């Protein structure tokens, strides 16, 4: 935790509304998870994206906390969401955290259809 805080900055402690608590906890929890793209699994269901609820609520404070959190999948999701929808609101510390996350060699599991693949953050973050 200390090394991550040195690299990415301390995790902010935002007020988390009940409607977003499950998504926030999934993206900051120690269970790493998988990034789902498009339709996934045998049934071909659309991938659920917990980050979508946070983006729809326009909670940049939650995205900043997820960006600095312990979950690598959450960090990549937050970086992509911040760059896609809130780039004009990012400060230098956010941009530096994203740059560092892109450089980390941590594998991120992705699922597309029935295929699982391993990617690096640099391949996923624009």
Give the overall pLDDT as a whole number: 85
Radius of gyration: 14 Å
Between the first and last Cα atoms, what is the distance in angstroms? 26 Å
- Given as residue ranges, the uncertain stretches (5+ residues, pLDDT < 50) are 39-47
Q: Work out the count of structural domains.
A: 1
- Report the order of strands and helices: HHEEHHHHEEH
SSE-based structural type: alpha+beta
Strands, count: 4
Main beta-sheet strand count, sense and barrel state:
4 strands, mixed
Strand content: 15-25%
Fraction of helical residues: 40-55%
Q: Any idea what the shape is?
A: globular
Order of strands across the main sheet? 2-1-3-4
**Continuous helix count:** 7
How would you describe this protein?
The protein has 126 residues and is of the alpha+beta class. It has one domain. Helices cover 50% and strands 17% of the residues. Strands 2-1-3-4 form a four-stranded mixed β-sheet. A hairpin with a 4-residue loop joins strand 1 and strand 2 (45-46).
